[in-house]
Design goal:
Structural class: alpha+beta
Helix content: 10-25%
Order of helices and strands: EHEEHHHEHEEEHHEEEEEEEEEEEEEE
Shape: globular
CATH class of the largest domain: Mainly Beta
CATH architecture of the largest domain: Sandwich
Distance between the termini: 63 Å
Number of strands: 21
Number of domains: 2
Number of helices: 7
Length: 320
């Protein structure tokens, strides 16, 4: 392991979905792990394998997370020496991972950073014009419950004739701790989930000038814990606690002045990096009535018609 100041060209940040997707391209990888012998990683088992192996070192003098670097080097080596018949799969996988914000890259070279910015791999809050939403969630209780807690819900925007947009984002959180843990080793469950209490710090980012932020939890007034501004975007946040085997509903409300113009309205929803992307039932209204025409681009569609934020999504609406 290299420590201390180093000369680097840039930084590449990836999440566990990158690991799964690349293993689908390269095939399973078997590497020696101190104290465990040869361990095989596949697209279906790699995440839990790594979590189990990095919980506690077999030898206290060993770096318990060295297996992560060892596996990464093996996968990168394979990706660089793929047979030609797998090139298309590799290109498609990497392109999709970037588009879905599972990869973020920073380069110290301005010309390279410009390209990364243009293709959306730089991780910044998008400066697009018009209305904007970025929902950010951070697990704050040192558990891995974010692997199994998957919010979903509805998102309604009611645009007044003057263009002011009243937003309501309602998300349902369910914590299936006992069901998930039923077939897992108890020691691993304890190490990863710490009793099953989930804590999420939830933030809504909107355009500059966002006003009237409010939070409701399970139908009761909640707390706006703090507010701020980042990269020209205003935000507000709250803390949500979710015990094992329970569910809670959290609703965010806010207003954006002059978000639409005349009969047109445009909304850009920026997906949170490092997540699978939650599914939302989108409703664009004018004074309670559905827009005459709504078009969405980006993301994917669930079987029930909801929009899943697997990528950034642009919504355009027109009113009669």
């Amino acid at each position: 392991m290299v420590e201390g100041p180093q000369q680097v060209d840039g930084i590449v940040a990836v999440d566990l979905i990158v690991l799964e997707r690349l293993l689908n391209v390269t095939g399973p990888k078997t590497i020696p792990v101190t104290g465990y012998g040869d361990v095989t990683f596949t697209a279906s088992n790699a995440v839990l394998q790594l979590e189990a192996l990095t919980r506690q070192a077999f030898d206290p003098s060993e770096d318990r997370k060295s297996v992560v670097g060892d596996l990464a080097r093996e996968i990168v080596a394979d990706m660089l020496h793929l047979p030609s018949e797998k090139w298309a799969d590799a290109i498609n996988a990497v392109s999709e991972l970037g588009e879905q914000r599972h990869v973020q890259v920073f380069s110290y070279r301005p010309e390279e950073q410009t390209v990364l910015r243009d293709i959306g791999w730089d991780g910044r809050l998008n400066p697009t014009r018009g209305d904007f939403l970025h929902f950010s969630e951070a697990s704050v209780l040192s558990t891995k419950l974010n692997l199994i807690v998957k919010p979903e819900g509805t998102y309604t925007v009611d645009v007044s004739p003057l263009g002011d947009a009243r937003h309501e984002l309602t998300l349902r959180y369910a914590n299936p701790f006992s069901k998930w843990a039923a077939d897992k080793p108890p020691a691993l469950v304890s190490q990863l989930m710490l009793g099953g209490l989930y804590g999420g710090y939830l933030r809504v980012f909107g355009p500059s000038g966002l006003s009237n932020p409010a939070v409701e939890i399970d139908g009761q007034p909640g707390n706006v814990e703090d507010t701020g501004t980042e990269s020209g975007r205003d935000w507000f946040g709250t803390l949500l606690s979710l015990p094992a085997d329970s569910s809670r509903t959290v609703t965010f409300r806010w207003t954006v002045a002059a978000a639409g113009t005349g009969s047109a309205y445009r909304l850009f929803i920026q997906k949170q990096a490092g997540t699978e992307g939650m599914c939302l039932a989108l409703n664009i209204l004018r004074e309670g009535r559905p827009a005459s025409d709504v078009h969405t681009s980006g993301g994917t569609r669930a079987a029930d018609g909801r929009t899943c934020l697997t990528t950034d999504v642009t919504v355009t609406a027109r009113f009669d």
